[in-house]
Amino acid sequence: MNQPNDPDRRLVQFLREYAPDVPPPSPELEDRTIDALDGPHPIAVNRAKLRQLRPLWLVPVGIAAGLVVVWNGTRSPIPPQPSAEELAQLETYMETTWDGVLGETSLTESSDWFFPEASE
């Protein structure tokens, strides 16, 4: 089928030539494995450690909660009052936009902006 290209073949040859020898297994490996399996169950050990460490995770959570409370306490929940210039701009805007709504004009079917079907 497909022949590997030359660089890949050279790489494979290099890795085979310079690959390290596998170290022999430790003579006590089997005994240590059996002892580890006969020992206490690892899940029970982890649960015991978790019971001891449970209060410790409350410390960073408490610090974070305290920082959030302090940060929110320093910010003012009331927005700042607008300046006299901003109030004047707002008043002008409301007068110009609401003038047609509150004026003497009434909505009829001839109003193009309200009844688009009538204008076609």
The helical percent reads 55-70%
Our Rg estimate from Cα atoms comes to 40 Å
Describe the main β-sheet briefly.
none
- Give the mean pLDDT: 75
Order of helices and strands: HHHHH
N-to-C span: 72 Å
Strand content: under 5%
Low-confidence stretches: none
Based on CA inertia axes, which overall geometry fits?
elongated
Helix count equals 5
Overall number of strands: 0
From the helix content, strand content and strand pairing, which structural class follows?
mainly alpha
Could you describe the 3D structure shown?
By secondary structure, the protein is mainly α. The protein has a domain at 29-72. Helices cover 66% and strands 0% of the residues. It has five helices and no strands. It is elongated. The model has no long low-confidence stretch (mean pLDDT 75).
Concise overview:
The chain has 120 residues and is mainly α. It has a domain at 29-72. It has five helices and no strands.
Question: Can you lay out the helices and strands and say which pair or pack?
Answer:
Elements (H helix, E strand, L loop, with lengths): L5 H13 L10 H10 L3 H33 L9 H19 L13 H4 L1
Characteristics of this structure?
single chain, 120 residues, mainly alpha, 5 helices, 0% strand, elongated
